[in-house]
Design goal:
There is one protein chain. The protein is mostly helical. The chain is 59% helix and 0% strand. It has four helices and no strands. The longest helix has 26 residues, at 12-37. The mean pLDDT is 80.
């Protein structure tokens, strides 16, 4: 899921954070698997391995709860603007549409002195 969050992130910082969190999540998963598959030997007891696996599961849960840096909605959405902001934007667009279009030198007919 972390890779999907990273791909769908709209912010570059979110994309980087979620990608790194996904990498860490996968590493913790591998460590938990290693604890579960480990043989009990003279230097490790089953209780200690289970405790480490439980601690790693808490880390995995914390990594799954890492939130986003940017909001999940588009701040330029007109529905999220106040009435005053919307009116000001409308007035600026109206003024822009009323400005006369200036002719560019390429669009003006060329006058050549051919009699």
């Amino acid at each position: 899921m972390g890779r999907l969050r990273a791909r769908l992130a709209t912010n570059e910082v979110d994309r980087t954070v979620q990608s790194e969190v996904a990498t860490a999540f996968n590493a913790v998963e591998r460590a938990i698997r290693a604890c579960r598959q480990a043989e009990v030997g003279p230097n490790a007891s089953r209780a200690r391995l289970n405790r480490v696996a439980r601690d790693l599961a808490r880390v995995r849960s914390a990594l799954g709860n890492v939130g986003k840096v940017a909001p999940g909605y588009d701040l330029s959405d007109p529905d999220l603007m106040s009435e005053d902001e919307r009116a000001a934007e409308w007035r600026s667009r109206l003024e822009e549409s009323r400005r006369p279009v200036e002719a560019t030198p390429a669009s003006q007919p060329s006058v050549e002195g051919g009699d």
